[in-house]
């Protein structure tokens, strides 16, 4: 099978298209023909060597799969060949999704929502699971609460807006002015141009000085530290950003705030919950750019570049038909 191999940590040119042995499913495992995958910040962080101690080289990386079951190992009962599936491979524990085939444990695989194409499905597994973990499992966002989603036009943020809205929250988000209508189309109630307005001042004005109940941080750094200024008393901050520098969170003490840091954990249950929202028409990933498997380096370069103007996710069509919605949709 063809795969994009990472032989050395470095820039987007570090990938090499190669022919490697097709994996064989063992007991409890499923062999999937990958139709699509996608690019996340985690992907270029791994490529750069940020997690070098956890990624032995050479490596096949990648953290999203949408595809079709080709074979199952002994003991598998949930899937049969021909099933359309989606999942996030085990992170830092085996080959990733930048390949024509992938093997995964039955327990982390879900049935792909028929409403989504493979490109859309692959764009949602990691970010959707992360958002579910953050908003539902960690901070327990409740009906009637308010939430600030930083970076609402991005790959994670545009999903967080939709999930928060589906949970009954009032949603604030920071975007560029060019993305106002996009953010509103996702369900955002208040959009803030972070290039022209201080988001803390905007939040306090819109909430009569009360602040929001939850901040969902996709930026990190100073944004994480300042988010406490936009919080209500007993507010919660949930961040998905790896913190490289010490943060001064002193403002959070006066709010009795709680902080949560999320690194997603795979399981089928979260995928099934996302499928329910999709079936209800409450969640749809936005694919902002599509590349082929051989052009993964270019896809990394696009996502990694600042001010790239992207909305939603960068997807990879491993199979030429990946853009098609399932026949039974």
UniProtKB/TrEMBL annotation:
Domain Enoyl reductase (ER) residue range list: 10-316
Family annotation (InterPro entries): ADH-like_N, ER, GroES-like_sf, NAD(P)-bd_dom_sf, Quin_OxRdtase/zeta-crystal_CS, Zinc-ADH_QOR/CCCR
Compartments, as annotated in UniProt: Cytoplasm
Domain of life (superkingdom): Bacteria
Record key words, sorted: Cytoplasm, NADP, RNA-binding
Record-level GO cellular component terms: cytoplasm
Entry GO MF terms: oxidoreductase activity; RNA binding; zinc ion binding
Keyword field contains Cytoplasm: yes
Keyword Cytoplasm: yes
Quaternary data: Homotetramer.
UniProt-recorded name of the protein: NADPH:quinone oxidoreductase
Species classification: Bacteria, Pseudomonadati, Pseudomonadota, Gammaproteobacteria, Pseudomonadales
């Amino acid at each position: 099978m063809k795969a994009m191999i990472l032989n050395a940590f470095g820039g987007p040119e570090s990938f090499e298209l190669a022919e490697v042995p097709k994996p064989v499913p063992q007991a409890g495992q499923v062999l999937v023909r990958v139709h699509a995958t996608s690019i996340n910040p985690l992907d270029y962080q791994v490529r750069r060597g940020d997690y070098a101690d956890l990624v032995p080289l050479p490596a096949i990386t990648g953290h999203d799969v949408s595809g079709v079951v080709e074979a199952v190992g002994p003991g598998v009962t949930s899937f049969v060949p021909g099933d359309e599936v989606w999942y996030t491979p085990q992170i830092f524990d085996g080959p990733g999704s930048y390949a024509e085939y992938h093997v995964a444990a039955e327990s982390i695989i879900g049935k792909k929502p028929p409403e989504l194409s493979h490109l859309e499905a692959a764009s949602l597994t990691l970010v959707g699971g992360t958002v579910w973990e953050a908003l539902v499992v960690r901070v327990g966002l409740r009906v009637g609460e308010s939430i600030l989603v930083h970076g609402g036009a991005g790959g994670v943020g545009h999903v967080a807006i939709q999930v928060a809205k589906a949970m009954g929250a009032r949603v604030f988000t920071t975007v560029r002015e060019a993305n106002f209508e996009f953010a509103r189309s996702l369900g955002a109630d208040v959009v803030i141009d972070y290039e022209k307005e201080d988001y803390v001042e905007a939040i306090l004005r819109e909430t009569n000085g009360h602040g929001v109940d939850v901040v969902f941080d996709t930026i990190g750094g100073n944004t994480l530290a300042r988010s406490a200024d936009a919080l209500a008393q007993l507010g919660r901050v949930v961040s998905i950003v790896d913190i490289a520098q010490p943060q001064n969170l002193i403002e959070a003490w006066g709010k009795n705030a709680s902080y949560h840091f999320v690194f997603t954990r795979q399981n089928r249950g979260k995928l099934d919950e996302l499928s329910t929202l999709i079936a209800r028409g409450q969640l749809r990933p936005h694919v902002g750019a599509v590349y082929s498997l051989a052009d993964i380096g270019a896809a990394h370069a696009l996502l990694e570049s600042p001010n790239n103007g992207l909305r939603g996710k960068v997807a990879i069509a491993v199979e030429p038909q990946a853009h098609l919605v399932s026949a039974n949709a």
